[in-house]
Amino acid sequence: MTVHNIRHGDASDGGADSVGGRLSRVDGPAKITGAAKYAVEQQLEGLAYAVLVESTIASGKVRSIDTAEAQAAPGVLKVLTPDTIISLRTAADWFGTPPPDLPYCPLARDITFSGQHVAAIVAETFEQAVAAAALVKVSYDETPSIVDLNDAKAGDGIPIDAMTKEWGDAHAAFASAPVRICAAYNTPREYQAPMEPHGLIAHWEGDKLTVWEPSQWLDGMARTYAEWFGVPFENVRLVSPYIGGGFGSKALALTHGAVAASAAKMLGRPVRLVMTRPQTFTGYGGRAATRQTVTIGADADGIIQSIVHRGINETSMGGMWVEPLGSVTSIMYATPNFSSKQNVVRVNSVVPGAMRAPGENPSAFGIESAIDELAYEVGVDPLEIRLRNYAEQDPEAKKAWSTRQLREAFAAGAERFGWARRTPEPRAMRDGNQLIGWGVAAGTYPVRRAYGEAIVRILADGSVEVESSSIDMGQGTYTILAQTAAETVGVPADNVVVKLGDSRFPRAGVAGGSRLAGVMTGAVHKAATSALDQLVGLAISDPRSPFHTLQANTLVVANGRISSPRGDGPDLSIAELLSSVGRDRIEATGDTMPANSTAEDRYKNYTTIAMALPHTEGDYSRHSWCAHFIEVRVDEDFGTVRVSRVVSALDSGRLYNPKLAESQWKGGIIMGIGQALLEEGIVDRRHGRIVNNNLADYLVPTNADIPDIEVISVGIPDLHASVLGGKGVGELGIVGVAPAIANAVFHATGKRIRDLPITLEKLI
Ligand code: MCN
Ligand code: MOS
C-alpha cells in the first residue's frame, strides 16, 4: 500500500518534482516488479472461494433450483440461493436518495436479464467451487424479452423531462432555414473491459467488515456495504491500493459484492469472489446503446439558426441509467434556437452505467458528425464551419466560459496536422488502392467539482507522508499528490510517500467525472500548506529552535532544508529542526469543504455524488475542450479502415503532470479508435445473451491498430475550475474521436457512416 518514490523524473526537466513537472509514475516500479498487491491477491487465513451461477434466460422467473448434487460435491461449504442467503437491506443510490425500507436479495428469482446472479457456491478451493457451480440445475419459466434497442418491441420509451433543454423556437427556425440537415446517429452497447476483472475478498470480524476490492470510490462503496448489512459506516473498511483499470465500471458496490460479503458473514470465513471475463460483461452494464437524431437549420454560409436534437438510450427493466445525449449538442456551437429531448427505453439488460465520458461521448458523435454533414452541404471546410459557429459563451447557461482554448486547439492541431493541404472533395486523396481521408471533430467534458480531504505529515526524518482514501486506477493520483506535497512543503518528491486506497484514511469522493485530480491536489495543497505553516511557526517561536533568536517573520523551506530568506542565520534540514524542538512529526488535515460544513455535509459529500458543484455554478461555465485531427486509410477493395495519424490539441487548463496528462489523453484517444472501428456488444436475439462476452470477440484496439498519436496541450490555468488551475483530463481525450474518424472516412470514401462501429461491411 505504501508507494516509495524512486527518482525517475525526466533528466531534461529540472522541475519534475513540482506540480507541472514530468515526474514518472511513482507507483510504476511496484507495478512492474509485481510488488503491487491487487485486491484479490491478499493471502488470508481460511479463505473460501465463491463462484456465481447466472441466469441463462433474459426474462421470466426461476421455477426451481436443484442444488442437491452441488451440495454433495467435494469441498462445498455453502450453496447460496434466494432461499438460503441472508436477507440484506436496500441501500441508497449514489445520490444518497433514502432507499425504500425493503429487504434486498442479491440473488434473483425474477429474471430481467441474462447473466443475473441466481445462486452461488462457496467451497474450500476455487476449482471445487467451479465444479460444483456446474452441478446447480436452474429451471425457468421464460417470458418474451426485449433484447436491445433494435428490438421491434423496444418502442420509444419513457421521456426524461429533466433532460429537456430549449431556447428560442427551434422548429420554426428550422422550417425557415435555407439549408437543412437531418440525420440519425447510433452507437452500440460498449464495455469498459478493464484488464483486472471485478472481484473482491470480504472478511467479517464481529460486525466489522473489511473488503479488498478494486474501487473508484472507497467511501461510496463502504456506505453501500454498511447499508446493506445494517452496520455503522465506520464498521466497513474498503481497501484498494492498486486497480487494474475501471473506466467507470468500479465506482459502485455491485450485486456480486453483496453475495461475497453475505457468504463471508454466513460462513464466518473470508470469502473471495472473482468474476470470469464473460461475467464482467453483465456484472456491470457497459455504455448504453444510443440513438440520436440531429437536425440543423443553417443559412447559406453555414451559420447555424436552429438545432433540434432527440436522443434515446437503453436502460434496464428495473434500474435507471440516463446517458445525457444533449450534453455536447447544447454547448458546442452558437445557435439562437435549440431543442433537445431524451427518452430511455427499457430492455432486458443489466443496468448500463458510466463509461469514460458518459453522455459527452455519444453526444459528440451526433453533433460532430452532423456539423460535418453541414460543412459539405454548404461547401465550407469542416474546420472553418466550426469556427464560424464558435460559441463565444455557453449558449445554454448564457454564461462566460471560465476558459475555452478551443480556437487555439483548432489552430494548433490544424497547423501540426497540415490541414491546409487537405483536398476538399471526398475521394480526392489516395495512395495506391488506399483512399485517404482527413477528418476533424471537437470534444468537451465539464469540470466537475467536489471536495476532498487529506492528511499531510512531516516526519522526524524530514520525509513527508500523504494519506487519502482516494484511489489510483492508473491515472496518476499517487504521482500528482507526491508532486503537490513536495512542492508545497519544499522537499524533493523522493521524500514523499503517498498512501491511497484505504477507507480508513481521510475521505474522498468518487474518482469519476474526471474530478479527482482537481479535488485532491486542492486538498493536499491545503493540508501541506498548513503543515508547512506549523513547521515554520515552530522554528520561529519555539525557544529550542536555532531560529528563535533570529526574530524572523518567516523562513524558507526548500529541498528539505529550512533557512531564513535573507540567507543569514542557521540552515538546517527539516529533520534537524524537528529534533531540535523535540517533535517527531507535524501533522495537518486539510479539506476543501466550505468552512461551516457539518459532519453530515462531509459524510454526504464523500459517500454520495449529491454535493458536486454544478459546472455552471456562479458566473462561469467550466469545461475542458479538445480538437482531434485524424487521417484514415480505407482499402478500396476490402473496405478496411486504418487510422494512420492522429493529432489532437487539448485544453485541460493547467496540467499537474504533462507526462501523465498526455498519457491519459492518448489512452482516451485509443479507446475512441476502438469505439469508432471495433467495439460493439452483440446480443443473441433468442435469449438476450451477450455473444461476444470475452476479449477475443469483443474487439478492443491492439498496438497494431494504433498509429503515432500526437497530443498538444493548449490549456491555460483556470482558477475557476480548481485550486491549482487544472481542468479534467481523464475523459476528455475520448470525446470527439469517433466522429473525427467517421468524418475522415466520409472524406476518404464519400460514404457517411452513422452507425458505430465503422466496420467493413458498412463500407463496401
Ligand atoms: N491530470 C493532469 N492535469 C490536470 C488534470 C489531470 O496532469 N489538470 C492527470 C493526472 O495524472 C491525473 C489524471 O490526469 O491523475 C486524471 O485526472 P482527472 O481528469 O481528474 O480524472 P480522475 O483522477 O478523476 O480519474 C478518473 C478518470 C475517469 S472518470 C475515467 S472513466 C478514467 C480515467 O480517469 N478511467 C481510467 N483515466 C483512466 N486511466 C486509467 N489508466 N484507467 C482507467 O480506468
Ligand atoms: Mo469515469 S466513466 O466518470 O469513471
From TrEMBL:
Sequence intervals crossing the membrane: none
Span list, region Disordered: 1-22
Family matches, as InterPro entries: Ald_Oxase/Xan_DH_a/b, Ald_Oxase/Xan_DH_a/b_sf, Ald_Oxase/xanthine_DH-like, AldOxase/xan_DH_MoCoBD1, AldOxase/xan_DH_MoCoBD2, AldOxase/xan_DH_Mopterin-bd_sf
Gene3D superfamilies in alphabetical order: Aldehyde oxidase/xanthine dehydrogenase, a/b hammerhead, Aldehyde oxidase/xanthine dehydrogenase, molybdopterin binding domain
A family per Pfam: Ald_Xan_dh_C
The organism's place on the tree of life at top rank: Bacteria
Protein keywords: Molybdenum, Oxidoreductase
Occurrences of domain Aldehyde oxidase/xanthine dehydrogenase a/b hammerhead (ranges): 33-144
Cited SUPFAM superfamilies: CO dehydrogenase molybdoprotein N-domain-like (SSF54665), Molybdenum cofactor-binding domain (SSF56003)
Keyword Lipid metabolism: no
PANTHER family for this protein: ALDEHYDE OXIDASE 1-RELATED (PTHR11908:SF132), XANTHINE DEHYDROGENASE (PTHR11908)
Name this polypeptide is given: Xanthine dehydrogenase family protein molybdopterin-binding subunit
